[in-house]
Amino acid sequence: xxxxxxxxxxxxxxxxxxxxxxxxxxxxxxxxxxxxxxxxxxxxxxxxxxxxxxxxxxxxxxxxxxxxxxxxxxxxxxxxxxxxxxxxxxxxxxxxxxxxxxxxxxxxxxxxxxxxxxxxxxxxxxxxxxxxxxxxxxxxxxxxxxxxxxxxxxxxxxxxxxxxxxxxxxxxxxxxxxxxxxxxxxxxxxxxxxxxxxxxxxxxxxxxxxxxxxxxxxxxxxxxxxxxxxxxxxxxxxxxxxxxxxxxxxxxxxxxxxxx
Length: 260
What we know:
The chain is of the alpha/beta class. Helix content is 40%, strand content 22%. The protein has ten helices and 13 strands. The strands form three sheets. Strands 1, 2, 3, 5, 7, 9, 12 and 13 form an eight-stranded mixed β-sheet that branches. Helix 3 crosses helix 8 and helix 8 (202-218) runs antiparallel to helix 10.
């Protein structure tokens, strides 16, 4: 009985590095289109950020990784006094986990922004520890240096200083941009925002996203690109036919209606 109970509580296996690299080749809206077809969650309000977030390195493209979480409060000096060894303990936590990792930072100073957890030094150190980027509802600074380190950041804004930044707690549930995130969650993020992918949806995600992308190209996008003003009635007919073809293919694959 104990073995059965233990098996039920095991976390699902992580996706392979190759699978993560393939997910990284697609933008986050394309990943969402596939996720929408396979999930039992509400695609209108679950999974993605509910508040506006800014990608400060859009040229780096998407990032994919598993969440490591930390809470900060740069405006409160007491955290440094109460736990002077926090940085050391926090970094050991980050180092103990397999990558690729995305550091998700909840800033308790919100809605104020008093200091940045991120800059040239911290981004380089975290990159060395296997982290590919961050999502923080606080600030970042040293933007050029962070980009040079290959460390992508989605954040609220830029900041000049770091104030009294210090890890308050880590390896705990956090909430950023209206979205709760637990340690170990799989995240896909780019200039559009981010998507937290439920564990039960991860194994099917790549195939679903690829199918939806190909389905669009074969039907609606092809119909939309084939246009001439003299052929408008026929163009509208082709678009309607393409929409029907797109819908039939999606219903056959996923047994649900989707966006069209």
